[in-house]
Specification:
It is built from 15 helices and 14 strands. The protein folds into two domains: 85 residues, Phosphohistidine domain (Glucose Oxidase, domain 1); 284 residues, TIM Barrel. 47% of the residues are buried. It is 37% helix and 17% strand. Helix 3 packs parallel to helix 15 and helix 6 crosses helix 9. By secondary structure, the protein is of the alpha/beta class.
């Protein structure tokens, strides 16, 4: 489901659900509760899920390969194994000797990325990019989801937000602590964009101990993103604590931390949320375009004051094509290059450019060359850390 930086990976199977450094994690499915086990793994083998699911995307950012096998075969995976990523197979036993293929030529270069944006999961990803040589300066933006920040910091956001004023303030200060560390790792002219909390109920259930979590028949289309933020005064209070702490600790550099609205449908939601969150006028607020409704509303969202537009291709695909990004049974229908998807992305880019609003398009590494050939030029492309680093290092 996701590749790595090589063609083979060897290691010992870990079925414990606990973090075991350098192991091959084996699990029926990937979920938020497995975060520590995932990020310490050399590779992951699972029995279900799609290539752009949230935890799979975390693996892509870290360069952790993920291979899906039949769930009935998971029980056979014990001891030492070798993943052959080219043939998409698992070889049992330690004595495997597989030759890596030559690297393909003709890949897109770093110049093609424009003002590149790295999609990160934690502080390590910023350091990984900024230690990648001279081309690191072409990355002017780091984009992190608040829920990934929480997973890396061991925070339980719904428990905190349901715990009263002291717990809410403590949560806000903990988020600010992480953002300050991120900001201090930036190079000159780089900035950080925080995608506000977008914790779906099915993911929340795995990282919540005390607060009630709704059981929804279809969490992907449920109460999350902008629609959840609009109903949470507790989150508004936590966000004000975050912003106040950033101003106190970073001074003028607090302006290098921007905010972005997730799962947005239209300009009315954008304006209502800005007002509801009571954001100071000098805090940039961008919009994440990942639904067909938001594609249609992009001109109005720009006119409503969006500081920047981010195009979330992975979610656009599933909503345009009615193909769940986490369901491998419909993987053949989930097509990141489908004409309808590309038409939607094209509309967003053209609308944003016409409005003078910066626009960035997310791309999987395998899609970048195709997007460069078939889409109007955005201000920059967004890529997960490991894939972006490969492009940065290509010429050295």
């Amino acid at each position: 489901m996701t590749g790595g930086t090589g063609s083979t990976v060897r290691g010992t199977c870990n079925r414990s659900r606990r973090a075991v450094e350098g192991s091959i994690l084996v699990a029926p499915s990937l979920e938020a509760a497995l975060y520590e086990a995932i990020v310490t793994a050399r590779a992951v083998i699972c029995g279900t899920g799609g290539s752009t699911g949230h935890m799979q995307s975390l693996c892509r950012g870290r360069g952790i390969p993920v291979l899906r096998v039949d769930r009935a075969d998971l029980d056979h995976l014990v001891g030492e194994v070798t993943l052959d990523l080219d043939s998409q197979s698992v070889l049992i036993g330690a004595d495997q000797d597989l030759a890596a293929p030559d690297a393909e030529a003709g890949n897109p270069s770093v110049e093609d990325l424009g003002s590149a944006c790295a999609v990160i999961a934690d502080l390590q990803d910023i350091r990984t990019i900024n230690e990648s040589g001279p081309n690191a300066k072409r990355v002017d933006c780091f984009f992190i989801r608040e829920e990934f920040l929480c997973l890396a910091a061991g925070l339980r956001p719904l428990d905190a937000l349901d715990g009263g004023p002291a717990a809410i303030a403590e949560y806000g200060l903990a988020v600010a602590d992480r953002l300050v560390a991120f900001a201090e790792a930036l190079l000159p002219d780089q900035r950080l964009v925080l995608r506000l909390l977008d914790l779906r109920s099915d993911h929340a259930a795995g990282v919540t101990e005390l607060a009630p979590v709704a059981v929804e028949p279809n969490p992907e289309l449920g109460l999350h993103g902008a629609r959840w933020l609009l109903g949470s005064p507790a989150y508004r209070a936590a966000l004000h604590t975050v912003l106040g702490s950033l101003r106190e600790r970073l001074g003028e550099d607090a302006g290098r931390v921007h905010l972005s609205i997730p799962f947005l449908n239209d300009a009315e939601e954008f304006s209502r949320l800005r007002e509801f969150l009571e954001l100071p006028a000098d805090v940039p607020l961008s919009a994440f375009i990942e639904t067909p409704a938001a594609v249609h509303a992009t001109p109005a969202i720009c006119a409503a004051g969006a500081a920047e537009i981010f195009v979330g291709v992975k979610d656009l695909v599933q909503f345009y094509l009615a193909a769940d990004r986490s369901n491998h049974l419909v993987a053949d229908s989930y097509r990141t290059r489908h004409p309808a998807v590309l038409d939607g992305v094209r509309r967003v880019v053209e609308s944003a450019r016409a409005a003078g609003t910066p626009v960035r398009v997310f791309s999987l590494g395998t899609d970048l060359a195709h997007y460069l050939d078939h889409l109007p030029t955005p201000d920059g492309y967004m890529m997960c850390t490991a894939e972006l680093r490969q492009v940065i290092l290509e010429r050295f």
